[in-house]
Design a protein that fits this description.
single chain; 250 residues; 80% helix; 0% strand
Amino acid sequence: MLDLLGSALAQPGLGWVTFITIVAGIVYGFAGFGAALIFMPVATIFWAPELAVAAFSVSALASLVTLVPRAWPQMDKPSVFTMILFSMLGAPLGIYLLRTSDVTHIRWAVLIVAAITLAALMSGWRQSLSSLCSTQAGVGAATGFVGGATGLLGPVMLLFQLSGTDTVTRVRANALVFLTLSSLLLLPSMAMQGILTTEAIVLGLVLLIPYGFGAKLGQAIFVPRFAVFYRNIAYAIIAAAILMGLPIWD
C-alpha cells in the first residue's frame, strides 16, 4: 500500500493538480457547477486524460458528505433520477472513445467542450426545452457520453437546467446531486473497460480530502442573493483553466 501511495505521490504535477482540485471544489461548492470544467483542462496537462477522468470521479466521493446532504431535499428527484439513469447508458460509449482516442485529441475535445459551455453560460444563451421524460432521458444519455469521453459531465445537463424556470436553489441542488452521483456511477463502466486502475483509485483518494475541503468552504461562503457574483467568479476561473490547458503551451 505504501508503494502505491508513493507511486501516486510521484505523479508529475501533483502539486498543481491538488491546488486546482481545491479551487474546483470551492467553485463547485458555491456555484453548483464548474468543478470538472476547471479540473480537467489543467489535470490533462500533466496526466493522461483517462487517468485524470478516473481519479476525479473517485474524488467525487467527497461530495456525498460535503454537498449532497443539503442539496438532496431541494432537488427535483424525478428529473434528476431520470437523467442519472440514462447517463449510465450513454457513459460506456464515451469511455470507450476516451480510452481509444489520441491523447491530444481528447485534450482538445475537453477544451472545446469547456469553451463552448463557458461561452453559452456567459452569453446567457437559453434554448427552450420541454421537461418531458423523453427530453430528460436524451439529456442524461448525452451527458453520460460527453462525461465518459471528456470527464465533463456538467455542460449538457447544466444548459438544460438553465433553460427551465426553476429557482437558483433548485438548479444548484439538481446539478450538485446529478454531477456527484453520475461521477460515481461512471466508476463501474471505467472498471469494466480497464481505466479504473489502482493508480487512479489511489490518486482519487489523495485528491478526495482537498476536493472535499474546497467544496465545504465554497458551500460555507455561498450567499443566495449574491448568486450572480459567484457565477461570474466561476466563469473567470473556468476561462483561466481553459487557457492554461491549451496544448499550444506544451
